[in-house]
Design brief:
6-stranded parallel β-sheet; 10 helices; Rossmann fold; 16 strands; binds NADP nicotinamide-adenine-dinucleotide phosphate
C-alpha cells in the first residue's frame, strides 16, 4: 500500500489581503542531500509574511505562486535526507528555512545548516517565534553594525519582534541601549533592560539621546533620515528597511548599511546559548492556530504588538 504523503499548509495562489490565505492539502516535501523533513510545532509570523502576501516583496513574484508562507519554525526531525550529519530523527530544532520553503505547514524541509537545536529552556511554541526576528537582530547589531561592549546604540522600534531581541542582545554584549517606542510599550522595553526609553509620540529622540556608535533602524522613512544627527563620526546606521543616504553618511563621517537577514544555524545556536543562559527571552504577544493564519497576520499588521506572533501547527 502506498504511504500517504499529504499535509495541510497555508498557501496563497495570488497576491492580496489576508483573505488570500487558504489552508490546503498539499504534498509533503521530500528532503534532499543534507536536508531534513521536520514536523512543524510552531511557525513565527513576521511582517515579511504580509509583505509577501500583498505582492510587495521582490524575492517572491508571480512565478513562485502558489506559495506557502512562513519564514521560521520549530519542530521535530521525522526523516533525514542523504548525508545528514548534524541532526537525527527525533531531534528538536528551530530554523529559518530559505524563502522557497514555507513554515505555515504541518511539515517543512530544512537544510541542516539552517537549523539549531531547540533551546532546552524553551517550549516548542516559543521556539517557533525565535529564528527570523532573532537572526535579524543578531546579524544587524554584530555582523553589520559591529557593536562592541561599552558602545552606545539607539534602536528604533524596540518593542517589535526584531527590536525586543535587539535590546537584549545589545545588553548581553555590554552596550548602552536607548530605544524609541510608543508610550504603551515603554514599560515592556524597560523590562527587557533598555537603559533609556524614548516615547516617540511625546518627544523627539534627537533632543534626548547623546551621540551613539550605532543606530539600528527598524522603522525607516523620516525616523531614519532624522537619525543622522545622533550618529557619532565613525559610527554606523544599520537599517532592515531602506538603504541609508550615502551623502548624509559622508557628511557626518559615518556609514550606512541596509541588509537582508540570512539563514544561519551557527548564529541561531549562539542565540540559543544566550536563551538557555537566561540572558535573553522571547516574548509571545499572541499565539493562533495554523488555520487562523489570516487572523494572525491581521493582528500583527494592525496592532503591531509588543513581542512576537506565532502559529501553532497542531491542527
Ligand atoms: N531586512 C530584513 O532582512 C528584515 C528582517 C526582519 C524584519 N525586517 C523589517 O523590519 C521591520 C521590523 O520588523 P519586526 O519583525 O520587528 O516588526 P514588528 O514586530 O511588526 O514591530 C515593529 C514595531 O515598530 C513599531 N511601529 C511604529 N510605527 C509602526 C507602523 N506604522 N507599523 C508597524 N509598526 C510600527 C511598533 O512598536 P511601537 O508601537 O512601540 O512603536 C511595532 O511593534 C519590519 O518592517 C520588517 O519587515 C526586515
Amino acid at each position: 500500500m502506498e504511504t500517504v504523503r499529504s499535509m495541510k499548509a497555508v498557501r496563497i495562489a495570488a497576491f492580496g489581503g489576508p483573505e488570500m490565505l487558504h489552508l490546503e492539502t498539499v504534498d509533503i516535501p521530500t528532503p534532499g542531500e543534507r536536508e531534513m523533513l521536520v514536523k512543524v510545532a510552531a511557525a513565527g509570523v513576521n511582517p515579511v509574511d504580509y509583505k509577501i502576501r500583498a505582492g510587495k516583496y521582490p524575492a517572491v513574484r508571480e512565478d513562485k505562486l502558489p506559495y506557502i508562507l512562513g519564514r521560521d519554525v520549530s519542530g521535530e526531525v521525522v526523516e533525514c535526507g542523504p548525508s545528514t550529519e548534524r541532526f537525527a530523527k527525533g531531534d528538536r530544532l528551530m530554523a529559518m528555512p530559505r524563502i522557497e520553503r514555507g513554515g505555515y505547514a504541518e511539515y517543512v524541509v530544512i537544510r541542516e545548516d539552517e537549523a539549531a537545536p531547540r533551546p532546552r529552556s524553551l517550549d516548542a511554541i516559543v521556539a517557533g517565534a525565535v529564528p527570523l526576528a532573532a537572526l535579524t537582530a543578531w546579524q544587524g547589531l554584530f555582523r553589520h553594525g559591529g557593536l562592541k561592549q561599552g558602545q552606545r546604540v539607539l534602536i528604533h522600534g524596540g518593542s517589535g519582534g526584531v527590536g525586543h531581541f535587539a535590546i537584549q542582545f545589545a545588553k548581553a554584549k555590554g552596550a548602552y541601549v536607548a530605544t524609541t517606542v510608543s508610550g504603551q510599550h515603554a514599560d515592556f522595553v524597560r523590562g527587557l533592560g533598555a537603559d533609556q526609553v524614548i516615547d516617540y509620540e511625546a518627544r523627539r529622540f534627537e533632543d534626548e539621546v547623546d551621540a551613539v556608535d550605532m543606530v539600528f533602524d527598524l522603522i525607516g522613512g523620516e525616523t531614519q533620515e532624522r537619525s543622522w544627527s545622533v550618529v557619532k563620526r565613525g559610527g554606523i546606521l544599520v537599517s532592515t528597511l531602506t538603504q541609508p543616504s550615502r551623502e548624509k553618511a559622508a557628511e557626518g563621517g559615518a556609514r550606512g548599511v541596509r541588509y537582508t537577514v540570512e539563514e544561519s544555524g551557527a548564529d541561531l545556536s549562539e542565540i540559543g546559548v544566550l536563551i538557555d543562559a537566561g540572558q535573553v527571552r522571547a516574548v509571545i504577544a499572541r499565539c493562533f492556530p495554523l488555520d487562523r493564519a489570516a487572523d494572525a497576520q491581521r493582528f500583527l499588521e494592525a496592532e503591531h504588538p509588543a513581542g512576537k506572533v506565532v502559529l501553532e501547527a497542531g491542527l
